[in-house]
């Protein structure tokens, strides 16, 4: 676990140093559609690069997008799921070995004393459950890794998008039928 956090810390700091250099390497003017900043000082921001960076090193696309704060979630999620994969695999192997000892009919192999009263079916259910938990955590790892890539790609597409014309307001609305104020929200987009 310490290795994962050390690796994340090193990648974060390398990214903080490398991100400005990457941004400087992509300088050129671009013609952007309406709704985007048409400022001539805008740099081309490649969604493909962001996705490739994140697929090679998780979180590198977020650094490229200048969203290094997301590394906490990327490495926190991957680290937590990795821990549970390792832990569930350890318990799975232990219960599997105890089940083998119980069912091998060899008097020289003994089940741990706390499991001596357990039936073969109970041990089989236990190791099957932990195998399932391990496999579900592995799927979770893949999903978090994929979400990291998708997030980097989507944000890179919206990197130059101007959100000044988009606003969200929360205000009470008066209902004339009930003669009461009710909470409401309105999303306004100016064309």
List the helices and strands and how they pair.
Layout: H1 2-25, H2 47-56, H3 60-64, H4 71-103, H5 120-157, E1 166-175, E2 180-189
Antiparallel strand pairs: 1-2
Helix pairs in contact: 1-4, 2-5, 4-5
What would your notes on this structure say?
The chain has one domain. The protein has a two-stranded antiparallel ribbon with strand order 1-2. It is elongated, with a radius of gyration of 27 Å. It starts with a helix and ends with a strand. It is 58% helix and 10% strand. It has helices spanning 2-25, 47-56, 60-64, 71-103, 120-157; strands at 166-175, 180-189.
How would you concisely characterize the structure shown here?
The chain is mainly alpha-helical and 191 residues long. It has five helices and two strands; from the N terminus they run αααααββ.
Q: Biggest β-sheet: count, sense, barrel?
A: 2 strands, antiparallel
DSSP helix count?
A: 5
The average pLDDT is: 80
Order of helices and strands: HHHHHEE
The residue fraction in helices comes out at 55-70%
Number of domains: 1
Q: What is the radius of gyration computed over CA atoms, rounded to a whole number of angstroms? A: 27 Å
Give unreliable regions as ranges. Answer: 21-32
For the terminal residues, how far apart are their CA atoms? 50 Å
List keywords for this structure.
two-stranded antiparallel sheet; 5 helices; elongated; mainly alpha; 191 residues
